[in-house]
Every structure is written in C-alpha cells, then in structure tokens.
Amino acid sequence: MRVMLTGNEAIARGAYEAGVKVAMGYPGTPSSEILENLARYQEVYSEWSVNEKVAMDGVMGAAYAGKRAMFTTKQVGMNVAADSFFYGVYTGMNAGVLIVTADDPGMFSSQNEQDNRHYAKFGKMPLLEPADSQEAKDFVRVGLEMSEQFDEPVILRTGMRVSHSASPVELGKRVWDDSAPTPPMKRDPHKFVATAVWARLRRPLIEERIGKLAEFAETFPYNRIEWGDCSLGIITSGVVYEYAREVFPNASFLKLAMTYPLPPKLVREFAAGAQRVIVIEELDPFLEEQVRLMGVAVEGKSIFPSYGELLPATIERCAVEAGLLPASAVANKRDVMLKNLPPRSPILCPGCPHRSTFYMLNKLKYVVAGDIGCYNLGAQPPFDATDTMGAMGASIGVAHGFDKARMPDKAVAVIGDGTFFHSGVAPLLNMVHNNGKGTVVILDNHTVAMTGHQDHPGISKTLVGVDGGRVDIETLVRAMGVPDVRRVDPFDMKAVEQNLKEAVEYDGLAVVIMDGPCVFVELERKAPFEVDADLCNGCTLCFRLGCPAIFKTDELDKTGRPKAGIDPVLCVSCDMCRQICPRKAIYMLTPATASGGAQ
Amino acid sequence: MKPYNLLVTGVGGQGTVVASDILAAVGLEVGYDVKKSDVLGLAVRGGSVISHVRWGERVHSPIVPEGRVDVLVAFEYLEGLRWLDQLRPEGNIIVNQQRIFPVLVSAGRAEYPTLAETHAALRNATQNVYVVPGLEIAQGLGNTRTLNVVLLGAFSGLTEITPEVWINVIRKRVPARVADVNLKAFQRGREALSQSRLKAEEAIA
C-alpha cells in the first residue's frame, strides 16, 4: 500500500517495520513527530526521556539486552547525547542502534545551525542521509542492519525539509517475532566495559572498521551514479539531490545515501567520467573535504553558500554566477510585492501563565538569564526582558556565574519546568553546594509546551498515555537544600511582583516556582473581559502585557492616546490586564453587565 | 496530466495543513507523483503557515520553485500578499475574504494594508484572482472549521479532477461526524468560484 507520509512519520513506520523494540528521545523541532508517531505502535516501547543523554544510554541498554533500539533528537540534542554514543562506538552492542538526528538548516527553530554530519566522522560512525520519505523509512532498516553487521551505532540524519515534507511511501510488514521471550544478556565485559585498559585494546578495531565501511560503501546499493550529460558531474546527497535534479535535469549525478565514510573508488570513477565535477551540499563542505582528500579536483563552496537552507532558487542563482547555467534558466522575481507588510511574529498566547513574569521583569529591570522554551519570547517586545539565552538548562549556570563574578546588577535565571528537568537540576545542585546566591524562577506550566505539549517527570502521564511517576518540583528543590522556596500563582500579579522582589533581595539562593498551567493543558474559559471606554485613558499599561487579545481602538482620550479594546474571541479571562489597570477600566463581561447592570 | 505547483498559506489554526493533506491525497488518487512541504513557524497558534504541494509526473523537490506557483490558495489576505512574487504571471489566486490582524497591528505598531490596496496588489500580480467569502460560507453552514474545505471546493473548480475524487478523499480525511457538513462546504466553495472573480475595476487602489 502506498501512502503519503512525512519524513518523520516514515522513520517511525520504518522503526516499526524493522523490529525496533525500544525508542527513546527528547522532543525538539524538527524531530518530535518521530516518537509521537511511533508511540501508536504497541509492539514498540517508546518514551520521552528526561534528556537526550539519558535517552541515548537507555537505547544502549536495550541494545546490550539484545533488542533493536532507536534514539531521536534535534540537532543540538546530539551535543547532550554525545558522551553516550561515543562509548557505543567502542563497546558495540548485542543488537542494532540507530541514532536519528533532525538538523535545522535555515534555523527555523534552533539557536544554531550545526551540521551534525560531523558527528559521524568525529565518532567514527557510518552516516545515512535520506532524500525523501521512502528512503527515510528504508534507511531505518538498512541502518539497523549495518549497525549489527559492523557492531556500532549508525547515524540517520534528516533536516527540516525531509522531516516535515511528505511523499508517497510503500508500507511493509513488521519483521520481528514479538512473542519470542527476551533471552538473558550476552555478557561480555571486555567489550561492554569501556575502561581504559580494555577500550585501548578495541581502539585499532575502530580504525579497521572505518576502512571496512568505506569498502562496504563502494557497493552499497543506495549510493548510485546516474549518468546523463557528462560535461557536468554533481556529487550530492539528501534533499539537496532532489533540488539539484530539478535545477540540472540533464547533468550526471553521484547520489550518495551513505555520506560517511565515502567510497573512494566510486567517487573516482564518477569524477573520471565527468568534465567538470561539483559538490552541492547544504551547510559545511563535509562531502567536498572528503572528496578533495581523495585527490579529486572538485568545486563546491567556491560556488554555493556554507550556511542557510540551500534551496533550489539559491542553487540556480549560484549556478548562473558560476557559468553552469545560462541566465535565462532563472525565473525573474517579479516586482509585485506590497511594501512593509506587517510580520506575524510568534507571541505568548492569550492566557499564557508566563506573561506576568515577563511583564514584571520588564518593570523591575532585572538582568535575566533565559532558557529554551516558549518563554524565550520574553526577549521580544513588549517585554524586552531577557538578556542571555544559549542552550537547554544554561540559565541557572549563567546566573551562578553572574553571582561569582560579583556582577552588581540584580539578576534572575528563568527556566521552564521541562527544561529544569532536562538540565536545570544539576546546575541548581551546583549552586547549593558552591554557596551560590541568586534567584531561579521556574516557570512551571505543566508541559513541554513549545515543541507540542510533551510530557516530563513533573507530569503524571507518559508518552504512551499511561500513568507515570510524578516529581513535584517544590519538593525536589527543597530536598536539594535550597533555603528560600516560593510557590506563586502566576495569575496573581501582586504576588508575582512581591515574590520576585523578595527573592532577589534575599541574601542567598532562592527559587520561585510560578505554578500555572499552559492554556493548552488546562483552560477554564470564563466570560471575556471588556474595557470601559469612559474610564480608559489610554495609559498603555495593558498593551505592555503583549496580549494578542488587547488592541488599540480608534477612540482617543483627551490627550490623543488610543484607548484599549479586548477581542472577546481571543480573551480567555486570565485576569492579568484587569489587575494592572490603574483606572479599573477592565471588567468581566457577564450577562448582567452586558445588559447594562452593575457588576 | 498538467503538473501543478500549489501554495497554501494562512494563519495557524485555520486548517491549512489539513487542506494541504487533502490536496496531496487527491493528487496521489488521480495518479500524480506528489510531494508536500509544511513550514509551521514558531508560534503554537496564530503564526504564519505555508504548505507547498506539487503534482507532476515525477516530482523531485518538495518545494515549489521560485516564481513558478500555479495556484496560491490564501486563507487570509495578508498571508496571500506575502507570496505574490512566487506566482507565475498567468497564475491563479484564491483568497479567503478575511483579515486577521497580527499583534503588531492590533497594538498599533504596524499598518494592515487597506482592502483597496490589497485587491490592487493581488490583481497586479495576476488577472486571475478569486475572492471567495470562505468564512461567510463556513459560518452559514454552522461550522467555521469547514473553511479549509470551502476553499478546496473553490480550487477544485480550476482543475479537471471530478468532484467525486475530491469527495472520496475528503470523506476519508475528516472525522465521520462532520463529513456531511464538509461535503456541503466543498460544494458551496465549488459553486462560489465562478462568482468570485475579481474584476479590474474592483481592484484600484
């Protein structure tokens, strides 16, 4: 049966068909849908682990136990998992391990644009790059078979376009006897214990294996030459192959599916058959450098950019500049655009519990060490509150550094519940032990919101919808020995302000837990609020909440300032604007008040 | 069969992704090779959303080549205006007659183009502009979530694919309890196309 699947759906399907028994990962765009789809198959154990390293260790454990296992992450999560897959290269496993990384060229939703193909070379692991959904599905099985043949993890790398594009896929059956009992572990400590004396003995095997993999790649059926016009030969891989195929319909192609290690004979054969050889690849010159090391003369990054998405239009433009295409090949961009179209920027939702914290942080002018989550929007107008943000869990360590550098500014770290569990617990322990002073604000909205509302240890349901253990953040923080712990209702503006002030004034380590659910988790929708235009004097305070439901009306006050209005469809009556209105002009629209009666 | 490059644009929550799923399935059903690519933006809801859908004998790239869009289906005026330079000069625009103000506009820090400016810009990009009262039709059916199927109905009128194919795919793709209202939405959208064409004299800024 042929169906349309996204790359991520296809990887999930591929894992199911290839007999994966255990799949673990951490949510992150553009990878999250892989495990969400895999969780529908009861034959596979799937979980959101607390972070990528824990997931990778879990996957290794499953493979030591003899079961095929898969780890999923976005590109930056590979940095978190790296410590654990590097040992997998030394120890090998008793079953296949597939590492799936979904990179983000163009940085649609990431803090960097790292090219994770380097991890294959760095870790000395084979690397597969699918170009469409059919390959994404097929390469899961192929990768697991290679992992078992060569006794090390295999990396499957997609990008946003492969993960979030859909194309037809032929479905197959699951090739696994799920009823067979799990035999006891095949124990082999000289292999599985990577202690220096034993790991050193395995070190030469790893170099030998890379040589064997390069030999394997020579006849790997998914690496293929497509001969066309021999005046131009193009070496490429992944979705960029599909783009290049359209831009150069007549050229010859070496389409690589396995991009580390490369097959030297095949590359030389291809280069010998074409007059001009170019490498077209997104981000770093990863293929180009390998090909050049073979002594093959190629062009690549001298023609194409080494950052950003390498879209067909960019390939066309660069090809024209390099004389590879006539100028007539490019469709002229027509000058038909209206100027100054307003952007539709992301914004905290109406009713978001984070809004009060950033409104107050803006008002109090504290230095804010931020973290990764929806609350990163606190860096944007109208809040302009966040001063630093770099990686998951970084906020607490950065605030600790502020303190130890004796920075005179009043400062706080701000971190969400999911991110706190992911990598905020260890830096908070570090502050406790090293006499750190400062304020950590934990925005506990009871979900991993930004990536689509996944679970974490603070939630009582797991990925597959069963009950799971729930860790209470306040209890955990108190148990760590934090002296000043406050749990605050973020919908109470006065409480938010007072507790932030008191925590920052406290001469020690304080944690403020803003405990309020995301509107997608729990929403009690009451009647919407309304502005009394007679009382409103256009003071702008409510606009500073950055709420999508609050707008400037055409009605002006005496001094010419526009008065506020509230969109009754968007308003979820969170009450924050009513509390901060100095004129008491905002009230709940009830049937009584709507008909003119007194509140 | 004639290849198609389609762009479906709108605001998160309007149902554009389901629409592009249906477009992909219809293409596959009638024997095209199909690829589709969604860019959903950062916002959980309320952000710009764009889907590329391509029908052809053999489709390589999941992205519509620059300047070669055959039909732009815009669920909202502003999200249509953003992609005008992607259209072929003889391309078609189907735009839902609806304005959704971004926060920058409602907060008074940016201007939304006037209706006259909008219509003039659409008509300047191509003569083939269809302004469909999609939201009004969906509201008339008592279910605003059928907006996406209304617009697909309008689009179907530009193709030679029979309504039966569309109806079968829609029936499979939408929940059973709303299947009937969606089929009505498809029909109303299809009927609305012919009366929706924007005339030159209606598009003067």
List keywords for this structure.
heterodimer, A: 599 residues, alpha/beta, Rossmann fold, 4 domains, seven-stranded mixed sheet, five-stranded parallel sheet, 21 helices, 35% helix, globular, disordered C terminus, B: 205 residues, Pyruvate-ferredoxin Oxidoreductase, domain 3, six-stranded mixed sheet, 6 strands, 22% strand
Word description of this protein:
The complex is a heterodimer of chains A (599) and B (205). By secondary structure, chain A is an alpha/beta fold. Chain A has 4 domains: 2-218, Rossmann fold; 224-329, Rossmann fold; 354-515, Rossmann fold; 529-594, 2-Layer Sandwich (Alpha-Beta Plaits), CATH 3.30.70.20. Chain A has 21 helices and 22 strands. In chain A, the strands form 6 sheets. Chain A has a 7-stranded mixed β-sheet with strand order 3-2-4-5-7-6-12. Chain A has a 5-stranded parallel β-sheet with strand order 14-15-16-18-17, with helices on both faces. A 4-stranded mixed β-sheet of chain A has the order 9-11-10-13, with helices on both faces. In chain A, α4 (77-91) links the parallel β4 (69-74) and β5. In chain A, α1 packs across α6, α14 (354-364) packs across α19 and α15 packs parallel to α17 (425-433). Chain A is globular, with a radius of gyration of 28 Å. Chain A starts with a strand and ends in a 5-residue tail after the last helix. Residues 594-599 of chain A have low confidence and may be disordered. Chain B has 205 residues and is of the alpha/beta class. Chain B has one domain: Pyruvate-ferredoxin Oxidoreductase, domain 3 (3-Layer(aba) Sandwich), CATH 3.40.920. Chain B is built from 8 helices and 6 strands, in the order βαβββαβααβαααα. Chain B has helices spanning 16-29, 77-81, 103-106, 115-125, 134-140, 147-156, 163-173, 179-195; strands at 4-11, 33-39, 48-56, 69-74, 87-96, 128-132. A 6-stranded mixed β-sheet of chain B has the order 2-3-1-4-5-6, sandwiched between helices. In chain B, β2 and β3 (48-56) form a beta hairpin. The termini of chain B are far apart. The mean pLDDT of chain B is 94. At the A-B interface, β8, α10, α13 and β20 of A face α1, β2, α2, α3 and α4 of B. β8 (165-170) of chain A pairs antiparallel with β2 of chain B, so a sheet runs across the interface.
